[in-house]
Design goal:
The protein is of the alpha/beta class. It has 11 helices and 12 strands.
Length: 352
């Protein structure tokens, strides 16, 4: 049996896991008003859950952690649901978890974590060089130079907008991909082929995310006064550059419901806001607002860029949130500049 628990009422302070997964058709067991009493009372049998959830729970048991947070079972779904309030708190859920389980290779709720495979295929091919050719003498391993991108980040789950913040905010991640398990934390990116860590030549993309994940984990409280150490060091990119990079990565992902566009990046934006100490709204920052209006689509063409009605009715046209496209934003200059704004006839304009 599995049961949904109210951690506050039951005074539960134990470590817990989280789950990143593709929903697919939402015809599986979810927490709703009509079954709340049963799921939070006697619970449900494990066989009532999808293969994704069943196998994630088996991983939790293997690790030795009793609790797992699954969005569709821990946030009330359907009429009378509480996603509007709980969705604003998901950054806390993932940041404070022990580890996130990511089902990277499942297209829907039925795919599961585990795959039939030949373990020997995971080990990179090796050759022995005698030193007479271009390679120095010794044993050399042959592998794809885009291993991390192709086998992990190119999977369907990492094209989802919601999962972007889940990946960036989780302190540790176990990714169950098609061929092998990948590992991510603030100090190491590894996989079964390289359990001690990715070789330097393969680590470029992973190291960027790892770099910022480590800094986010140092934010021990939700107020700037609670930061235990600087978020960036002398040789690190600024938090502004991190935001520009995060914005491009996020807007390159897909959202089933475009109304969630600003909500699905809010968890990352909130952390940046607390560091910058300024207000955030409509996808833009309070200071030097005019400097931020030069954003543009990644490919600068109409291909892959669209102004869809649900975004146009919700966000101002001068915000990147008003279009569906990968977005390139630009740095704000620290020194003030002067602007003269006129209408098309060159006359003074007024606006509210």
């Amino acid at each position: 049996m599995v049961r949904v628990v109210n951690t506050a009422k039951e005074n539960i302070k134990s470590p817990y896991l989280t789950l990143s997964h593709s929903w697919g058709p939402p015809n599986f067991l979810q927490l709703k008003k009509e079954n709340e009493g049963r799921l939070m009372g006697e619970g449900a049998t494990i066989t009532e859950l999808t293969p994704n959830f069943q196998q994630a729970i088996s991983v939790a048991k293997f690790i030795g952690i009793r609790y797992i947070w699954i969005d569709s079972l821990c946030i009330m779904q359907g009429p009378g649901g509480d996603f509007k309030s709980e969705g604003q708190l998901m950054h806390k859920v993932y940041r404070h978890s022990h580890c996130n389980i990511a089902i990277a290779d499942s297209l829907d709720s039925e795919g599961g974590l585990f795959r039939q495979r030949n373990p020997a295929n995971i080990v990179p091919m090796s050759i022995e060089a005698d030193g007479t050719g271009k390679l120095p003498r010794g044993n050399w391993r042959i592998l794809e130079d885009d291993l991390w991108d192709e086998e992990l980040l190119a999977t369907k789950i990492y094209t989802r907008g919601w999962v972007f913040q889940e990946r960036m905010l989780s302190p540790r991640i176990l990714h169950f991909a098609a061929s092998q398990i990948f590992w991510d934390c603030s100090t190491l990116s590894a996989c079964e082929a390289f359990p001690r860590g990715l070789p330097h030549a393969l680590d470029a993309k992973a190291s960027i995310d790892r770099h910022w994940r480590g800094r986010m984990q140092r934010m021990l409280s939700d107020t700037p006064q609670g930061y235990g150490e600087p978020v960036v060091g002398a040789n690190d990119d600024s938090i502004e550059n991190f935001w520009l990079s995060a914005l491009l990565s996020y807007t390159s992902c897909n959202l089933t419901n475009q109304d969630d566009k600003s909500v699905a990046i809010w968890s990352v934006a909130k952390l940046v806001r607390d560091i910058l100490g300024e207000q955030y709204g409509g996808g833009l920052w309070e200071n030097n607002l005019e400097e931020q209006l030069a954003w543009h689509s990644y490919n600068m063409t109409s291909e892959g860029c669209s102004r869809i009605p649900e975004l146009q009715s919700r966000y101002p046209s001068w915000s990147w949130a008003s279009i569906k496209a990968p977005i390139i934003a630009h740095s704000r200059l620290s020194k003030a500049r002067q602007y003269v704004v006129t209408n098309h006839a060159g006359d003074a304009i007024r606006f509210e």
